[in-house]
Each structure stands twice: as C-alpha cells, then as structure tokens.
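Title: Comparing notes on inverse folding

I've been comparing how different people in this forum approach sequence design from structure. To keep things fair, I'm posting one structure and asking everyone to reply with a full sequence. Here's the target:
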C-alpha cells in the first residue's frame, strides 16, 4: 500500500481525517474555505509507480495565495505524475503512531508535531498492549515515558479505533490539534524482511 492508497483507506474505513482534497493539478483546487493556519500540501505517487515515498515534497502552513504555485512546483518534480493531498493545516497539540501488530497494539506519542517521532528524534510516551485472539488486554500494558501526555480518554479513543481497523502490521499516524480535534493522517504497511 503506498501513501495515496493509505489515505484512501482512511476514508474507506471512515476514520477521522483532515478535510482534504485529492488532486493532480492546481486548477482542481477549491480553496474557498477559511483556514486558521493555512494549508498543508502532501505529495503522493500514483499506485502504479513503485518507489520509496519517504522524501516526497511536503509543505505546511502555506498561505492560500501560494498553494497553486507550490503544487505546480511540486508537479514539475514529478514530471506531471504527482498526486497531491491538500487540506487545512492545524497546530499540533500532540501526535503519534498507532501500530497494529500481530500480537500487540503500540501507541507512541510526542508533544507537538508528529515529524519528530517519524524522524526518530524522540518518543515522549510509549504504550504496548498485548493482544490475543484479537482481544486487547489493557491490564497488561507496558508504559515508558511521560504517562501524563495522553489522557485516559485519548488512549481509549486510540484503542477504540484500533479495534475497528481490520488490518495487521500497519502504522497509523494521528494527532490532536490545539482545538482538541482528532485526526488520522496516514496508514502505512510495516514491511517485514
């Protein structure tokens, strides 16, 4: 599953996500919505192109009048084959990964932007819940780090979503914004050797 397929899976599973538009050209955009923090532009490859997508162009907190110009610039790098996910940006309160593994559920979280976690710079808190016969055992949780970062309601929210997702060996990136809205932004397969 590539980045675009993961984003479409979030929609298919009716998981909370940003109010995004998936486009190929800047002329397809509808930027009439007012945004508090500008726009986010994520690049994706079409599913038929099998390449590493880790270093694709990305822009956040873009002013409305600059969005089209940035998409056109990104599209030149893709020689017209890029696909873009554009949505109102938000300020991150906390963010993390929800890993759905064969025998466990792992929640990693950081204060602020998920990029610090994705880049391997830091993990503020880590929860590991064992799973047997598709049941999550919350009594046997292993916790490392700042237990105060996530409230019990936030942990319950993540575990409730984990129970609804029919995939194993995937990572879902998530965040809470400064207005306490919850979003998933990606679902990625964990590749095994």
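Reply #1:
Here's my take.
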């Amino acid at each position: 599953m590539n980045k675009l397929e993961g984003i479409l899976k979030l929609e298919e599973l009716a998981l909370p996500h940003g109010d995004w538009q998936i486009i190929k050209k800047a002329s397809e955009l509808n930027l009439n919505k007012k945004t508090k923090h500008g726009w986010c532009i994520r690049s994706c490859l079409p599913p038929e192109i099998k390449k590493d997508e880790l270093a694709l162009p990305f822009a956040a907190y873009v002013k409305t009048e600059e969005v089209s110009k940035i998409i056109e610039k990104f599209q030149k790098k893709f020689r017209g084959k890029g696909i873009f996910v554009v949505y109102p940006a938000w300020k991150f309160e906390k963010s993390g990964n929800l890993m759905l593994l064969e025998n466990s559920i792992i929640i990693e979280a950081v204060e602020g932007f998920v990029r610090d976690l994705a880049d391997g710079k830091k993990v503020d808190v880590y929860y590991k819940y064992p799973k047997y016969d598709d049941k999550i055992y919350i009594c046997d949780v292993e916790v490392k780090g700042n237990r105060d970062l996530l409230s019990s309601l936030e942990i319950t929210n993540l575990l409730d979503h984990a129970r609804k997702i029919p995939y194993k060996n995937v990572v879902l990136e998530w965040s809470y914004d400064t207005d306490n809205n919850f979003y998933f932004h990606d679902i990625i397969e964990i590749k095994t050797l």
